[in-house]
Amino acid sequence: MAAREAGGFVACAPAETDPRDRASVEPEPELSADETTPDPPADANGAAGRAVDPQEAQQSAWMKAAQAGDADAYRQLLSAIQPRIRGIVRSKIREEAAAEDVVQNALLSIHRGRRTYRAERPFGPWMRAIVRNTIIDHFRDRKRKGDREVELVAEEWADERVESAEGDDRLAPELTEALATLPESQREAVTLVQIKGLSVAEAALKAGISAGALKVRAHRGYRALAKALEGKRIGGEWKSERPVENDAAHSGDKT
Amino acid sequence: MSGGTERLIDGLLEDLEPVQPLPRLRSAFAIVLAIWTAVLGLVLWSQESVPGATLILVDRVYLVSFVGLIAASIGATMSALAASRPGREREETLGLLVTVAGLSVAALVCLIGILALGAAAPSPPGADRMCFEKGAFLSLLPAGVILSFLVRGWSAHPIRAALVGMLAAGALGGVIVHLSCGVVAPSHLMMGHMSVPIALALVGAYPVGALLKRLRG
User: Fold this and answer.
1) Residue A44: closest CA among chain B residues belongs to which residue?
2) What is the ipTM of this complex?
3) Closest listed residue to residue A113, CA positions, set B47, B216, B95
4) Which residues of chain B does A61 touch, with a Cβ-Cβ cutoff of 8 Å?
5) What is the mean pLDDT of residues A24-46?
6) Do A129 and B89 touch (CB under 8 A)?
């Protein structure tokens, strides 16, 4: 019974919606040998059982310093590994915005999981394991997405948003009202991603939760918003006057 | 580099705090095994008699199922600890294989015993449930110990990590019950002892996995 419940929950988990992830659905990738190779066994002294790559040794030293709180070393590390992460991600995900999201999620996971790195182990396999799993999570999220209606609402809302607006003062009053009815956690997620325009990883960092949890909250927020806004639009137009400067262009998009 | 990624890195740098790295895998494994041994020793020491210790020497089914539970507990412990560290897939898989092998052998030998003896070795009324409850109760402390290690790690597969973690704790509970129980009926070993890790894993895997997923970031 418990097994069925667990399985059922996974199957029924809310789709984690990131409106920018919509462009293409790639098949789950076969990871290359380089990405699946576990780290070599450590010898009695704890050193890896292969020649140490100087670049990797440097990154390992930076991570060790970062674990001690050295921000300079951490910045150097993140800057150095970023192209490598991007290279791995782009080899599996062609769509640029989605790939960049995954890169950011991988950086966030590396940050959250930095405690699990041990300096006597090679840095590369540790990092690649996290990146690989972030990529797999991305494809799992894609598979889970089933609620197209909610995605559509999020997408339409993204269209309604005034790109240059910094706050929510330029949103339609209906949206502002509907936002106010959301629970704090959902409102925060929706605001960070849709109003402030942060990436999922940035928003997750700000909210102090995982990227996955943020997506779930945002998704629930979109769904609650969709319900709250039901019947408040007539023929694709907001009932009240929309505070959007290029109103004509937007209304043209909604036909 | 995109502006968003730049901003994220700035955010990560702001969020940077010193952290204590997890102990080495082998150290963590040794710590947990030491705790397992202490729990086992303490529970058995607190009992008036340990009939299972004698039965192991005289009953093959009892012995093989005991060894299977021990193997499952050790393998699952290794697998759970490795699962909470990125890049340790080999140890995770190895531990999982040992766990599956241990449980399979134990279950198989019990099944063979049931088929061979059948009604000749009935389980006393209420004994299955009593042993199961005792085993489940005794698994709670080990489950807490393994959980304390899991929450500090970063699991790529939180549900799987939770599953093997609960299997490890449940198997230890099963081992304790095995040693303190005097019933030799294979059906009892299956329903009262072997079922403890399976039940704990099935019940605990999802909630614990969800917790790990939430915490890992």
Assistant:
1) B26
2) 0.79
3) B216
4) none
5) 44
6) yes
